[in-house]
Specification:
globular, single chain
Length: 179
């Protein structure tokens, strides 16, 4: 599969705001903190046109409660990733009334990661986003790597994501050293 990257779109902020309101309603009993993360949250950065959202919960014990609250909604629970990242629940948001088996990239509105707010996952994702927003060189480095990788053919979208790991890790290390 080819990865479709497009230039930054101002409309992504509005799409996030709409999805945030929906998630605040659906997850209201858990009082989540909801953040826009990933490339669509960084002005000037190219991205796949899929909004990345992180919902933070007070306790890891609430993760399965969140999954239950999102049952039978447009957010499809991908429990297959629980073993790999047991402290996270991952969902694919569908648009166009797509069925679970049909949520290919063009039918996705978002990727939703639900994690505890006290986790490294939460802190690192916010730090990475904020670093790219304030550091043009870091943002440009990340964009260049993403564009180079998007030219390749990938068996699965996760393979593309894994190929970005080294540059993300390096930029995150820089961000942790940055004032």
């Amino acid at each position: 599969m080819k990865i479709e990257l497009i230039p930054y779109q101002k409309s992504w902020q509005g799409e996030f705001a709409f999805l945030k309101k929906r998630l605040e309603h659906l997850l209201a009993p858990l009082e989540p903190e909801i953040e826009h993360i990933g490339s669509t949250s960084v002005p000037g950065l190219c991205a796949k046109p899929i909004i990345d959202i992180m919902a933070g919960l007070r306790e890891e014990a609430e993760l399965d409660d969140a999954a239950r609250l999102l049952e039978e909604t447009e957010f499809f629970y991908m429990s297959v990733y629980n073993e790999q990242t047991p402290f996270r629940r991952f969902f694919i948001g569908a648009k166009n009334d797509a069925e679970p088996g049909e949520v290919i990239h063009k039918n996705r509105s978002c990727h939703l990661h639900i994690v505890p707010v006290k986790s490294d996952w939460w802190r690192d994702h916010l730090l990475f986003k904020d670093y790219l927003k304030r550091n043009d060189a870091a943002r440009d480095t990340y964009a260049r790597v993403k564009k180079e990788l998007s030219m390749q053919e990938w068996p699965h979208g996760n393979d593309y994501a894994n190929a970005k790991t080294e540059v993300i890790r390096n930029l995150l290390m820089e961000a942790k050293k940055s004032p």
